[in-house]
C-alpha cells in the first residue's frame, strides 16, 4: 500500500477525520486540564498537589451521582427515538440532574464535622466540588448534543471557550493572586458556573425542553442510568480510594507524585475518549441501519475497530515519547512520578481498547452486565491495593494494568455475545 493510497483511505474515513477534529477540540477543552496540570505543578509542591488530587477525587465521586448517570442516554435517545420523544427524554434527564443536585446538597449539609474531616476536606470545599461537578456535566451534555448533530464548528467554539476561560482563570487565581492549590479550585468553580449557565441558555434557545410529562420516560431513563453508577464508581474506587490508601501508608507527597503519574496517563485515556465520541456515533449508525445486511454490518464494525485501535496505539506511543523528556526538563520536582507513569501507560491503552467494545453494550442497553464486570473488578482492585500498596507504589501501578486487562477481556467477551444475539451471524468476523 502506497502512502498516497493510505492517505486516501484515511481521509475517506469520516469517523477517523471527524474523530481527529473532535480529538483536537477535546484536547483544547479537556486536554487544557493537562496543560494546567503542568502549569500548576510548577507553582505548588507535590504535597499540595496531593491535596488537590483528593479534592478532585471527591468532585468526581459526586459527579457519578448527579443525574443518576442518565446523561449517557442523550445520544442513545437521539438515534433510537423520534425528535419529539428525544425532547421529552432530554427534559427528563435535565430535571433528574436538578433533583439529584438538591439531594446531594442536602446530604453534604447533614454530614457531621467528623465525617467531613475523614474525607480530608472541608464543608465549603464539598459544596464547591458539587457545583463544579454539576457545571461540568451540563457542559458535557451540551458538547454531546453538538457532536451527535455533527455541528463541528459550534463544538469547536465551545471547546476553545472552555480552554481560554479555564486557562485565564487558573493564571489569575494560582499565579497572579498566589492562592496555590486552592486557586485551582476557585478557577474551576468560576469556570463551571459560567459554562454551566451558558449551556442551559443554549438548551433553552435550541428549544430542547418539552412541557409534556411522562413517568414512563423517566422510568426508562433512570433504569438505564442506575446500573451505570456502580460502573462509573469503579473509577473512583480504583483512583479515589487509592489516594486515601496511599495517604494512610505514606504522606501527601506520595499522593501527589502518584496522582501526577495518573494525571499524565489521563491524556492517553482522553485520546480514547475523544475518538470514541465520534466512533460511538458511527457504530450506532451502523447498528441502527435497517437497510444493510448483517454481513455488511459485521464487516463495517471490523474495519472500524481495527482502524481506531491502530490510532490509539500510534497516538499513545507518540505522547509518551514527547511527555517524558518534557517532565524531566520542566518539572524536576515530579520526576519520581515517571517510572509509575511508564507502567500506568499500559492501563491507559487498555482503557482505550475497552471503549471499542462497551459501545455495543450501551446500544443494546446491556448495562447490567457492564456493571457486574466493572464493579466486580473494582473490588478486586481495592482488595489488591489494601494488601499490596503498603509494600510499594510500583505494585499499586501494576494493579491498575492487571485489573484493566481483566475488564477488557470480559467486556470484549460479552460484547461479542451481544452482537451474536442481535446480529445473528457468526461474530468471528468481528474478532
List keywords for this structure.
2 domains; 0% strand; 431 residues; disordered C terminus; 17 helices; mainly alpha
Structural class: mainly alpha
In the predicted model, the low-confidence regions spanning at least 5 consecutive residues are 426-431
| Strand composition percent | under 5%
Return the string of H and E elements.
Answer: HHHHHHHHHHHHHHHHH
- The number of helices is 17
Q: Give the tally of β-strands.
A: 0
Q: How is the main sheet built?
A: none
Rg over alpha carbons: 21 Å
Terminal residue distance: 23 Å
Provide the helix percentage.
Answer: over 70%
Q: Number of domains in the coordinates?
A: 2
Shape: globular
Secondary structure layout plus pairing:
Elements: H1 3-12, H2 14-29, H3 32-41, H4 46-65, H5 73-80, H6 83-110, H7 113-118, H8 123-148, H9 152-176, H10 181-205, H11 215-225, H12 228-249, H13 252-288, H14 294-330, H15 338-363, H16 367-388, H17 393-422
Helix pairs in contact: 2-9, 2-13, 3-9, 4-8, 4-10, 4-12, 4-13, 5-6, 5-13, 6-8, 8-10, 9-10, 12-13, 12-16, 13-14, 13-15, 14-15, 15-17, 16-17
In words, what does this structure look like?
This protein is mainly alpha-helical and 431 residues long. The radius of gyration is 21 Å and the shape is globular. Helix content is 83%, strand content 0%. The chain has 17 helices and no strands. It has two domains: 235 residues; 191 residues, no CATH class.
Amino acid at each position: 500500500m502506497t502512502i498516497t493510497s493510505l492517505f486516501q483511505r484515511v481521509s475517506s474515513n469520516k469517523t477517523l477525520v471527524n474523530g481527529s477534529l473532535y480529538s483536537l477540540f477535546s484536547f483544547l477543552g479537556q486536554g487544557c486540564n493537562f496543560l494546567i496540570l503542568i502549569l500548576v505543578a510548577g507553582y505548588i509542591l507535590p504535597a499540595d498537589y496531593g491535596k488537590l488530587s483528593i479534592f478532585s477525587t471527591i468532585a468526581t465521586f459526586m459527579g457519578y451521582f448527579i443525574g443518576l448517570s442518565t446523561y449517557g442516554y442523550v445520544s442513545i435517545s437521539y438515534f433510537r427515538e423520534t425528535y419529539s420523544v428525544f425532547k421529552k427524554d432530554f427534559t427528563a434527564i435535565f430535571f433528574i440532574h436538578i433533583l439529584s443536585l438538591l439531594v446531594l446538597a442536602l446530604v453534604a449539609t447533614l454530614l457531621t464535622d467528623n465525617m467531613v474531616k475523614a474525607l480530608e476536606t472541608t464543608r465549603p470545599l464539598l459544596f464547591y466540588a458539587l457545583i463544579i461537578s454539576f457545571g461540568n456535566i451540563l457542559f458535557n451534555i451540551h458538547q454531546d448534543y453538538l457532536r451527535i448533530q455533527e455541528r463541528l464548528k459550534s463544538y469547536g467554539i465551545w471547546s476553545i471557550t472552555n480552554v481560554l476561560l479555564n486557562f485565564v482563570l487558573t493564571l489569575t487565581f494560582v499565579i497572579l493572586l498566589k492562592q496555590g492549590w486552592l486557586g485551582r479550585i476557585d478557577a474551576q468553580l468560576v469556570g463551571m458556573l459560567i459554562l454551566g449557565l451558558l449551556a442551559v441558555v443554549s438548551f433553552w434557545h435550541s428549544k430542547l425542553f418539552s412541557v409534556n410529562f411522562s413517568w414512563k420516560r423517566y422510568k426508562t431513563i433512570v433504569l438505564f442510568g442506575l446500573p451505570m453508577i456502580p460502573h462509573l464508581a469503579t473509577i473512583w474506587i480504583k483512583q479515589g480510594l487509592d489516594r486515601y490508601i496511599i495517604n494512610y501508608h505514606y504522606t501527601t507527597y506520595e499522593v501527589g507524585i502518584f496522582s501526577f503519574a495518573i494525571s499524565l496517563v489521563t491524556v492517553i485515556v482522553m485520546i480514547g475518549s475523544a475518538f470514541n465520541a465520534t466512533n460511538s456515533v458511527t457504530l450506532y449508525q451502523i447498528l441502527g441501519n435497517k437497510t444493510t445486511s448483517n454481513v455488511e454490518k459485521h464487516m463495517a464494525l471490523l474495519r472500524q475497530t481495527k482502524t481506531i485501535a491502530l490510532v490509539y496505539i500510534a497516538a499513545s506511543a507518540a505522547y509518551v515519547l514527547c511527555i517524558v523528556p518534557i517532565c524531566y526538563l520542566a518539572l524536576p520536582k515530579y520526576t519520581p512520578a515517571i517510572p509509575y507513569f511508564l507502567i500506568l501507560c499500559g492501563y491507559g491503552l487498555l482503557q482505550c481498547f475497552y471503549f471499542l467494545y462497551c459501545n455495543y453494550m450501551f446500544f443494546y442497553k446491556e448495562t447490567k452486565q457492564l456493571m457486574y464486570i466493572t464493579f466486580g473488578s473494582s473490588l478486586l482492585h481495592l482488595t489488591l491495593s489494601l494488601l499490596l500498596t503498603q509494600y510499594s507504589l510500583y505494585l499499586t501501578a501494576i494493579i491498575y494494568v492487571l485489573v484493566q486487562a481483566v475488564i477488557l477481556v470480559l467486556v470484549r467477551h460479552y460484547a461479542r455475545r451481544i452482537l451474536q444475539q442481535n446480529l445473528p451471524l457468526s461474530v468471528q468476523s468481528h474478532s
